[in-house]
Amino acid sequence: MSSRVRASKSVNMIRRSSRFESVESYAGRVIEIYQRHAGAWSRDRGDRLVENAWLDRFLALLPHDATVLDLGCGSGVPIARYLIERRCRVTGVDASSAMIAMCADRFPEHEWHVADMRTLVLSRTFDGIIAWDSFFHLSQCDQRRMFPIFKRYAASGAAVIFTSSPSPGERMGDYRGEPLYHASLDTAEYRQLLHDNGFEAVTNVVEDPDCGLHTIWLAHRYGGKRADC
Q: For residue 21, what pLDDT band results from cuts at 50, 70 and 90?
């Protein structure tokens, strides 16, 4: 599952079809939205890259010719492409088959899986894990469950980078006229979850003005290189 669309205002309930539904009920609809609008999303996202400084910080923690697991890789452009151009071997995962088809067409020498990050089954570990604008589409409970998955696929010293919402709670954004779910935990809980699963937070910036107001977490598994961030 993948998103590069920012959340809008926080809400507790949404009115739809003349009845109220809980915000969390929309979490299960994220995949179908990106499947339905994959082509439009790829065009909307385009080639513009504001994330390069953070990607460079992430790469600084990795060995040469690193293996990277991209969770919610979308169409592979521009994030995976940036990593590939810097000699990473990318394994991309997205629950949208239409997104993965674009990745496979663009970068056939790399590995692409139609899969839900929450139930991912692979038989190896990676030097780096990235979940950029995808992790925050999971419910709060599912986000908590992701940290053991990060641990499972992180090699010794691996780096992890992900984006969250700027404050705890559930929010609804909008894409192509459809409500799009986002959620976040609070800063202390993210730090604790990282620690409990063998990671140390390197840096966390809330709504970075130099990165499209993304809220970013960069961490590494104990035993890894330290970054000057």
A: low
